[in-house]
């Protein structure tokens, strides 16, 4: 059977199952989410056994597979522990605690002719997720999609296939026992790129596709998909230290944005400093960053400090996701805005300033999903924003921009009630 | 110069101009819209002269062009009159009267850590419009995009090229005189399909593409575009007359939905009648529709009436946009829901019933942009919904669904204000 046929079949089952899920009450969905959480813990052994297979394969690929062992940090993401399973279960319980977006009346009015008009949130229908070797995404995505009334087709990395198969088997049993249809959560069959490709071409069968992972994965989905895509997460984030910055705050924010967690999309990758505060700030920030093990890729002014590596245009464009930062002195706020306009990926950009006018210009003119004033870029996060759960951070302008919680996983419909109204 | 280079150049100019437009106040934009309206009337002669060229070309294509004269109804859409120009000017003034979506705070809160969080509406940036031979769309789209802070690239039908060139020249002069940059409104150069193709491939340069026109145009844009598309307007709309319908209301709604205006996407194309009321309703509805000149493409039960043509599956799928309707008797509400699930284009579907439970099931289970109870499908319209202006009716689920007014022409950004906040 070709990948295309296989994907069409799971999508068809998902469509049928999505219809009853769309009509499920919040109480049914929340009870199901708790049952899913319970099942993850009750059947931890199965899941950990599946995961052990994946980890073993990643550490020592079978001879003849032609594959090299995976890098240690990828194996770390892949590995599940009892503690991580507890985190996944806790995540599902938290989703159960969130308000149900389905049925929310977004707006409504009584029209002049007596027609009642309401715009109401409804599920998309069938959501496709394409993601890398983090088995926790399997449970997170299943929970968020179920709560928002969407059937989900999961296509994780083939390196996590045994983990994902075990998790999905456990979740599907819990869903069935709770009285909903198991086909609201399905793995996309097939381990080759053909199944990813088929998923991207399933326009009409899959309503939305959400890729989560590195820039390469996301770009390939954006370019090849005929299914509407929500582009997530590439973050070339900037911190601009203005002439009017409080340099203590600036130092704390730069350090936090760069070093709090380097592998995430809201970590800072570039530092811009106003020329008037360069003399005062550069020695402090260079010493502090280097003290944390950060390599600075700097312009000529930064380059006057020991240990700073010369930056090229590639550095301005790079999402390092590591203990590296590009750094440049800019002549003024306009220079900072121009640099950000040219190089930012439109995720999160921050200004540090005590000058109200400068902060207002930065907020108005920086065209990014999140613009921060005197705060670390690390705050761009569904949890930090109080959304309670997050399926990803959108860097596109259509539909959703920034952290996506449950409401962003829905569409709307208009309901019009009359009494024989004609035009 | 290739079409690709030409499109890149106009898109680049649009991007630059969009930046100052995004910062323009409502007062500036409204004054500009009034100036645009004034200019359309003051320079009506130029526009009508351009239009006369288009109409002449449409009626009698030059020998050797290989083109046939356009159909009378297309020439009617193409033709401008003083009255139609006044309508276009009035449309611009109405847009000036609408609230500015830009800057609207969609939601906001003070987070537990003291961070101020706001989600604020911002323009997309650069919008591309691809449309057919209706020169009024040129002014409408320019007005809606300007008010929502977006630069627009207009690619109308080449059969309206002289009209569009004249209208855009007049609008650009008015924009310049009002102090905004003329490049917020531009025609896409080139009259071949190459320029449409280049527009569809201008990902990153054009933020959103909105096709308006027939099903063929929209499908080709949806399939070929790498720029995010908002799919508009194909309407295979249904009226379902339930067992518990008030048959007088049902008759009025069916007639209105089918015959009030046949060429529009919210006109009804299919009639479904519950078997229990078929005997009472069919003679009345067949006579009334035929009395208005409607050809009924019916199933066997409808076929027992004189003049009814036998329907095939093609009829259930067809958006006639003419005095034709497909008609079928269904065994029950489930049969109606099944038919609509199979054949509806997801635009607007109506039930006529006095039964609350039936209306609630119909509203919950019909997955369309608009679901109407005891009201004509013709009400799915930005004007009727009170939105004041409409760029089109979206039949997709991502971003906007149903009539799109000014807020649907925007994205949002998150603004986060702190005082040295770090995680």
UniProtKB/TrEMBL annotation, chains A, B:
Pathway: Amino-acid biosynthesis; L-proline biosynthesis; L-glutamate 5-semialdehyde from L-glutamate: step 2/2. It is an enzyme of class 1 (oxidoreductase). It is found in: Cytoplasm. Its EC number is 1.2.1.41. PROSITE patterns: PROA. It comes from the Bacteria. Keywords: Amino-acid biosynthesis, Cytoplasm, NADP, Oxidoreductase, Proline biosynthesis. Residues 5-290 form the Aldehyde dehydrogenase domain. It catalyses: L-glutamate 5-semialdehyde + phosphate + NADP(+) = L-glutamyl 5-phosphate + NADPH + H(+). It holds the Pfam family Aldedh. Catalyzes the NADPH-dependent reduction of L-glutamate 5-phosphate into L-glutamate 5-semialdehyde and phosphate. The product spontaneously undergoes cyclization to form 1-pyrroline-5-carboxylate. Belongs to the gamma-glutamyl phosphate reductase family. This is Gamma-glutamyl phosphate reductase.
């Amino acid at each position: 059977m070709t990948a295309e046929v296989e994907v069409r079949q799971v999508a068809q089952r998902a469509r049928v199952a999505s219809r009853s899920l769309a009509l499920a009450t919040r109480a049914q969905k929340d009870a199901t989410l708790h049952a899913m959480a319970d099942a993850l813990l009750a059947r931890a052994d199965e899941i950990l056994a599946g995961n052990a297979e994946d980890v073993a394969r990643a550490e020592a690929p079978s001879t003849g597979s032609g594959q090299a062992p995976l890098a240690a940090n990828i194996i770390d993401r892949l590995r599940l522990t009892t503690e991580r399973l507890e985190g996944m279960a806790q995540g599902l319980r938290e989703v159960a605690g969130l308000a149900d977006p389905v049925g929310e009346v977004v707006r409504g009015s009584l029209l002049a002719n007596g027609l009642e008009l309401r715009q109401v949130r409804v599920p998309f229908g069938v959501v496709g997720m394409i993601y890398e070797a983090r088995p926790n995404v399997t449970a997170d995505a299943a929970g968020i999609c179920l709560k928002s009334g969407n059937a989900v087709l999961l296509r994780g990395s083939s390196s996590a296939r045994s983990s994902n198969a075990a998790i999905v088997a456990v979740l599907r049993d819990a869903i069935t026992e709770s009285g909903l249809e198991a086909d609201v959560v399905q793995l996309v069959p097939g381990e080759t790129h053909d199944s990813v490709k088929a998923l991207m071409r399933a326009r009409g069968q899959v309503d939305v596709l959400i890729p989560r992972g590195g820039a390469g994965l996301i770009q390939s989905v954006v370019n090849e998909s005929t299914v509407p895509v929500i582009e997530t997460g590439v973050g070339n984030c900037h911190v601009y230290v203005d002439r009017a910055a409080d340099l203590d705050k600036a130092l704390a924010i730069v350090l936090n944005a760069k070093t709090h967690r380097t592998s995430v999309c809201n970590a800072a990758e570039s530092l811009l400093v106003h020329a008037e505060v360069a003399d005062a700030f550069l020695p402090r920030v260079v010493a502090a960053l280097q003290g944390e093990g950060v390599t600075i890729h700097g312009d000529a002014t930064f380059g006057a400090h020991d240990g700073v590596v010369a930056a090229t245009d590639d550095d301005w464009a790079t999402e390092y996701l590591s203990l590296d930062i590009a750094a440049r002195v800019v002549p003024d706020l306009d220079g900072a805005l121009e640099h950000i306009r040219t190089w930012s990926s439109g995720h999160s950009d921050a200004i540090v300033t005590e000058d109200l006018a400068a902060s207002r210009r930065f907020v108005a003119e920086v065209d990014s999903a999140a613009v921060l004033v005197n705060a670390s870029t690390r705050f761009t996060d569904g949890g930090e924003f109080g959304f309670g759960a997050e399926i990803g951070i959108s860097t596109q302008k259509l539909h959703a921009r920034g952290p996506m919680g449950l409401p962003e996983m829905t569409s709307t419909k208009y309901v019009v009630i009359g009494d024989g109204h004609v035009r």
